[in-house]
Design brief:
Chain lengths: 337, 337
């Protein structure tokens, strides 16, 4: 098969070879129209940057970019800290970009990171990836962390989104719960999709109720957790246990329970995601599904260093672990019967 | 008075004018020795970059740098979000550096930001400022946020570290407390120093006990809050109320109370700093001293835009506000007497 060259891409896009080259190397001095035409042609023809294109980027800046979805989410704060500390041990500084759960903002950060000539990018990607494919074509090493994309294959380190949820549902049904409400993450993210799928599988496996109205689709932010708790608790036949797919939605949901005088542990069992400090301070402390965030951050950096060095590291999964605390005690009604 | 020129600095430092110029413009291709010699000479002679030096930096990158002390502290996560959103409204992207409460790490980020040619820097400075003076000499606009330095005068937006603490101590003494323990922030930061001074003034003003052993010096991180709570609660004559100078130390201290079965609100009054979501979920929710973080972030960006445009904006203070919640109820012993 003929190797697709930059010349082929330029002809298909109707631009000069120099323009195509600038777009494909991520040079900032290109028009949006040219970028669009060249990107489309490169995608259509299946253009892949070669080692020579990579070696053109011969100026090392000793910086990596870290693209996060939400700097206010404690999970990503901890992840940022882990990545930065590990990168520093390799002599790299980490510059963060906060995409704010917004693809357009992620795209702007990718432009900035390209023009700042970072040596590599660790990203927890948004939506369909946006400009991430441009980043890859420009030859910048990329590793995904926490989230993955079906459309873009790069080495990744992601949480096991199955075991912890299966264990949580098994734990709740063993405690007598049959109606387990679920506040899901956005279905545009792999973590949101995989966790919802695991919840459904676990319900089916344990014989718990599988009513569609036990599921509320949130967006990983606190307000949607509050809305989810209100919606689920207002059901004619409300759940006796709630499970939320991240820490911020858990915070929103617990706030609604407090407002309504619903005693967590006594009136309602609750399982949160992510083992953040604050969850152990709530009375009773929250049962959580946790992943080793430090390990995730360290591995992401190690893998990026491998890619920068020309390697092709295998992807990794970080196990999920159920930590049982006071928010999921024996179910009162069962004990009394 | 004769204007100090780059030539004067070069002669005093014993380097070429080109080297002095590179150092003073923040060019990355300089040796540590040259940087040290030129910095020292520039400081000794009182060299100040002029408008011409600034105009040499004529390539706008439309990025600003944000130097934060601790990305895991929810206060700074919220501040980062506020800065980034406001900067974006001016067409600027924000790159974060996490100094991790460490001057050396802050210095490395300053080097990175200089070589990345950011158009300005918003910093919550560490210790004595380290390379911050180099940043200023290179002509990069700088605004301080949250913390200030005695040694470096730039426009700043900082919290009022007096009113909230005075109100908290008045509130606690009105509730019958005379022994108010204080978990202080590091005295190398302006916030740590000013808050401790306010605590002492407030004790004197209200007539509460002023024993030196009621004060524990922490470092704004959770572990030191836990250690502080243990130390203060183990006193022969322990405090009946605790006040902590930031959110992370508050989290550490509340954790120790839970471990020991000390009921906050009933056995011990507690006042935290910063109005983070998690504090409203604790039962009883925590009384806090809060500042409007969004306003602080917005103002810092507005002031930096003014400096970038050649202005000299006045510094601002953001008022502190006591929000009374269940952790500081009427003092039982007083009610019973």
């Amino acid at each position: 098969m003929k190797q697709i060259t930059i010349k082929d891409v330029a002809e298909a896009a109707g631009v000069s070879k120099a323009t195509a080259s600038r777009v494909l190397s991520g040079h900032p001095a290109t028009s949006p129209e040219a970028r669009k035409a060249v990107e489309a042609a490169a995608g259509r023809l299946g253009f892949r940057p070669n080692a020579q294109a990579r070696s053109l980027r011969n100026t090392r800046t000793q910086t990596i970019g870290l693209l996060l979805p939400d700097v206010r989410n404690p999970f990503f704060g901890d992840l940022a800290h882990a990545v930065e500390q590990r990168a520093r041990s390799f002599g790299y500084m980490t510059l963060f970009g906060n995409a704010n759960e917004n693809v357009e903002q992620q795209d702007e950060y990718i432009d900035v990171m390209l023009s700042q000539r970072v040596d590599g990018v660790i990203a927890a990607p948004q939506g369909d990836g946006g400009n991430l494919s441009q980043l890859l074509r420009s030859g910048v090493p990329v590793v995904f962390v926490d989230r993955v994309l079906d459309s873009i294959k790069v080495p990744s380190v992601s949480p096991d989104n199955s075991t912890g949820i299966h264990d949580a549902v098994k734990h709740l049904t063993a405690r007598g719960h049959r109606r387990i409400g679920y506040i899901a993450g956005p279905q545009s993210t792999s973590t949101g999709r995989e966790r919802l799928r695991s919840y459904k599988e676990a319900l089916a496996a344990t014989g718990a109720d599988t009513d569609a109205d036990l599921i509320f689709l949130g967006d990983f932010q606190a307000a949607s957790g509050a809305e989810g708790a209100r919606t689920l608790l207002d059901l004619a036949n409300p759940p006796t246990a709630l499970l939320a797919a991240d820490s911020l939605m858990s915070i929103g949901a617990v706030g609604v329970c407090n407002e309504r005088g619903i005693a967590i542990g006594t009136d309602l069992a609750f399982v949160a995601h992510d083992d953040i400090d604050a969850f152990t301070l709530i009375n009773p402390p929250l049962t959580v599904i946790a992943h080793d965030i430090d390990a995730m951050g360290r591995l992401a950096v190690d893998m990026l260093m491998s890619v920068i060095g020309g390697g092709s590291p295998a992807s990794h999964t970080i196990p999920g672990r159920l930590i049982v605390r006071g928010s999921t005690p024996e179910f009162e009604k069962e004990r009394q019967s």
